[in-house]
Structure formats: C-alpha cells, structure tokens
Design a protein that fits this description.
It contains seven helices and five strands. By secondary structure, it is mainly alpha-helical. It folds into two domains: 67 residues, no CATH class; 110 residues, no CATH class. The chain has a three-stranded antiparallel beta sheet with strand order 3-4-5. The chain is elongated, with a radius of gyration of 24 Å. It binds zinc ion.
Length: 212
C-alpha cells in the first residue's frame, strides 16, 4: 500500500487469490483500511480510539510505518471534485434506449452530452451530441417560446407546486453527487458493493425529483 497500490486493488488481488480474512470472509476496502490504520498493528493499546499505552503483543509495523499508513489512508481533504454536470443534464434522454444523457468531458476540452454505458451509467452508449450546438438550440427554442404572448400567458397561469428554481438546483445537486460517486468507483477508491447502495438511492432520488 505504501508502494502506491490502492487498498481496493489489494483487496481484489487477495479475494481473487483465495486469501480470506481471519473470519473467512472476503476483503473489503473498509476492513483492510481499518486494519492498516489501526494502532494495534504497531503494538499500541487503544481505548475508544485513543492510544493509551504499549500492548503486550509483537508489533507488525514500526511506528514510522504506522504513521505513514495513517497519513496515506486518511480521508483526502483535497477540495471536492468539481461537478461536471452541464445545465441540460436531467432534461435529456437517449433516443435509442431512453436512458438519461450524461455529461461527458474529453481530454481535449470537448464537451458533450452522451448516453453512456459502463459501471453505473445505465445507457447504451449510442448517442453523443456536442454541448454547444445543443445548448444554443434549446436556448433559441426557449427564447422563441418566451417571445410568444400566448405562451407567456399560458405560463403565467401555471402554479408550480414548489419553487421550480429550488427543485432544479436540488436535481442538479443529485446529479453532481452521482457523478462523484461514479468517479470514486472508477478510480478504485470504493469497491462495487460500496458503490451499489448509494448509487441505487441516488437513482431513486433523481427519478423522483425529475418527475416532480
Ligand atoms: Zn442510449
């Protein structure tokens, strides 16, 4: 781990190689992280998370290595990943499979909306459309509608159930959180089991918010 291998990759290697935990279960990122960062393996006794003295057992790692492990395993305080969600995410669906179009950034700076397949994406991968052309198209459409007095009068009649701005902010926030979760999974910071539960919950919340 100190040589740069991720906890997730070590767990995967051990699970594939048939190396069980002491209780015979599969390794999870949480289990291995809690062991590696525990003062007990460096020979310290703890009480409620605080080191209270030296233990009567043989240490597995020395104190320097323990400190290095704790530092390496500490939750990263780096600023949160910037959300990559674009303004129309949540309003667009794929014409081929009906899945949601998601934001997609290319390394060359190209931005697009895309139906994405792969872990947590749930699409067919069949559609990709440049952001600029599409966003301009939608802007012109909306400006055209707003310029029409009949449409404006009809919209004035509408009484939204809740403040629509707050609702679309909440929806955008859910999309940002979902993309961060997918980032964590694809970069190996969390394993598949850890990924699935919050992913399903966020998908439910996004579905409800979209319907509202
Ligand atoms: Zn699709």
């Amino acid at each position: 781990m100190l040589a740069g291998e991720s906890v997730w990759s070590i767990c995967t290697r051990w699970n594939k190689g048939g190396v069980p935990t002491v209780t015979g279960k599969s390794w999870t990122v949480q289990t291995l992280t809690s062991i590696l960062s525990s003062p007990r393996i460096a020979g310290f006794r703890t009480h409620r998370g605080t080191v209270v003295g030296e233990g009567q057992w043989k240490r597995i790692v020395d104190e320097d290595r323990h400190d290095a492990l704790v530092a390496a395993l500490a939750p990263r305080k780096s600023k949160p990943r910037q959300g990559r969600t674009y303004p129309l995410v949540g309003f667009l669906v794929c014409g081929k499979c009906g899945g949601p179009l998601r934001s997609l950034a290319r390394e060359n700076g190209g931005r697009s909306y895309a139906c994405r397949k792969g872990p947590g994406m749930g699409g067919c991968g069949g559609i990709r459309i440049q952001t600029n052309g599409l966003e301009n198209y939608v802007r012109d459409l909306i400006c055209g509608m707003l310029a029409d007095p009949v449409t404006r009068a009809a919209m004035a009649e509408l009484t939204p159930a809740a403040a629509p701005g707050a609702m679309s902010d909440a929806l955008a926030d859910l999309h940002v959180r979902r993309e961060r979760l997918v980032d964590l999974y694809t970069e190996g910071d969390i394993d598949c089991a850890t990924f699935r539960t919050p992913q399903a919950r966020l998908d439910d919340q996004i579905k409800t918010a979209s319907e509202q």
